[in-house]
């Protein structure tokens, strides 16, 4: 899922992660709050991928014309001329983020990187040069949500071809030198013990879905924190997608209203967008309780547009709303969570393992262990609220309703008295 990109940028560092046997290591680049794959070569393209978005919320490798010179027609020709490709030249329709409808030509190619080669890979070549501003999308989610029928996507093919022993991958989201490690875990990248939580089934009004479609986890509660002040934003369980390609927080209207009420302070609305006094929001963080594991995300990670009014700087937030049971069955956590938690996605076992991300400059050398079989080569334990997962569809009316706001420091001339009502 794609949300409007925030303009932020971070340099890459110098420390590398080596790939152990039975693992595939792909370095990423963190640009404008997104994780980009730029170190994978596609057969026939003549150059590595560039500006291709890593997406745990979709499942297809989709390449625009910028990433696949010649476009879909040339892609179809290459497919028909490649050995073992069969009749992969089917055309499918799809859409990503705010982009218009796309036509994808299904092609067979090969992918390679440092120390690995995937001899056969399926990709969709789009009929546009860019997809929502990106040259492509590297989807690695469950194949039940593939746009081009069901086929073996990158992690499944990597397992089938013996590059990895398990359809599992670890996302190291540190902004300095992010990476994704298929089939392994880097113990230098996190602190403490990996906490295990379930990937949930979507739940409707009467029953749960019988199969898993998206990488969603239970969030038991959410709070906004400023110094010693803590305001609950949600106390009802809800499943949220862990989506590396979504830089905003997608929530039910009740939780959105609660956050706006909690923030208080000077604000105004322009073109249906709420703007808040910058200095006040800079003091706030969000705490997401994922079945007992708390991840803290500073609110500035969700800053979007800036403007000035009466000599003060104001900012909007990357927020969007969903109506649970009507236009969605889950919310979406901002991909900023990956800056603070090391995340192992185990799609073979339908679990996620999380731990506190160790700051990049505090690490020693990489310590990579390959995953094989059902046992992990590193200590793990169940999250403390593992058995308090999402089983009943979220009902907004049952959730907390916030009517208080943070008491901002009165010494700041830009802070006004708190608001006690929601801003629509």
From TrEMBL:
- Any one GO MF annotation of this record: aspartic-type endopeptidase activity
Example of a GO cellular component annotation carried by this entry: extracellular region
The signal peptide here is 1-19
Identify the InterPro entries for this entry: Aspartic_peptidase_A1, Aspartic_peptidase_AS, PEPTIDASE_A1, Peptidase_aspartic_dom_sf
Peptidase A1 domain residues are: 37-355
Keywords, ordered alphabetically: Aspartyl protease, Disulfide bond, Hydrolase, Protease, Signal
Composition bias of kind Low complexity appears in 80-89
> Where is the region Disordered?
66-96
* Matching Pfam families: Asp
Family membership, please give it. Belongs to the peptidase A1 family.
Name by which UniProt lists this protein: Piso0_000831 protein
Organism for this UniProt entry: Pichia sorbitophila (strain ATCC MYA-4447 / BCRC 22081 / CBS 7064 / NBRC 10061 / NRRL Y-12695)
What's the name of its gene?
Piso0_000831
């Amino acid at each position: 899922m794609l949300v409007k990109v925030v303009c932020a940028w971070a340099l890459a560092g110098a420390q590398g992660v080596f790939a152990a046997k039975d693992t595939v290591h792909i370095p990423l680049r963190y640009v404008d709050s997104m994780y980009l794959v730029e170190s994978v070569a596609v057969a026939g393209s003549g150059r590595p991928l560039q500006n291709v978005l890593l997406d745990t919320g979709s499942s297809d490798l989709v390449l625009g014309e910028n990433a696949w010179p010649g476009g879909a027609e040339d892609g179809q020709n290459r497919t028909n001329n490649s050995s073992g490709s069969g009749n992969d030249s089917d055309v499918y329709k799809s859409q990503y983020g705010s982009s218009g409808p796309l036509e994808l030509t299904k092609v067979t190619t090969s992918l390679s990187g440092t120390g690995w080669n995937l001899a056969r890979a399926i990709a969709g070549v789009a009929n546009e040069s860019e997809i929502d501003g990106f040259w492509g999308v590297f989807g690695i989610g469950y194949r039940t949500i593939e746009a081009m029928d069901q086929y073996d996507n990158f992690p499944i093919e990597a397992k089938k071809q013996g590059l990895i022993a398990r359809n599992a991958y670890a996302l190291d989201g540190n902004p300095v030198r992010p990476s994704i490690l298929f089939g392994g875990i880097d113990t230098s990248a996190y602190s403490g013990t990996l906490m295990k939580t379930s990937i949930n089934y979507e739940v409707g009004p009467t029953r749960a879905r019988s199969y898993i479609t998206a990488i969603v986890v239970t969030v038991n509660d959410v709070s906004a924190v400023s110094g010693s002040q803590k305001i609950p934003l949600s106390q009802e369980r809800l499943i949220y997608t862990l989506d590396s390609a979504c830089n905003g927080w997608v929530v039910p209207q009740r939780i959105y209203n609660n956050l706006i009420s909690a923030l208080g302070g000077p604000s105004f609305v322009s073109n249906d967008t709420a703007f808040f006094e910058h200095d006040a929001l800079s003091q706030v963080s969000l705490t997401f309780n994922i079945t007992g594991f708390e991840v803290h995300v500073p609110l500035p990670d969700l800053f979007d547009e800036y403007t000035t009014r009466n000599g003060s700087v104001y900012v909007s937030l990357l927020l969007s709303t969903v109506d649970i049971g009507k236009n969605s069955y889950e919310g979406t956590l901002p991909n900023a969570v990956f800056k603070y938690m090391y995340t192992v996605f185990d799609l073979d076992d339908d679990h996620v393992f999380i731990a506190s991300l160790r700051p990049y400059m505090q690490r020693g050398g990489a310590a990579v262990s390959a995953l094989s079989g059902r046992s992990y080569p590193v200590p793990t334990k169940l999250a403390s609220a593992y058995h308090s997962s999402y089983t009943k569809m979220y009902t907004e009316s049952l959730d907390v309703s916030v009517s208080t706001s943070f008491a901002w420091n009165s010494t700041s001339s830009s802070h006004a008295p708190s608001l006690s009502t929601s801003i629509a």
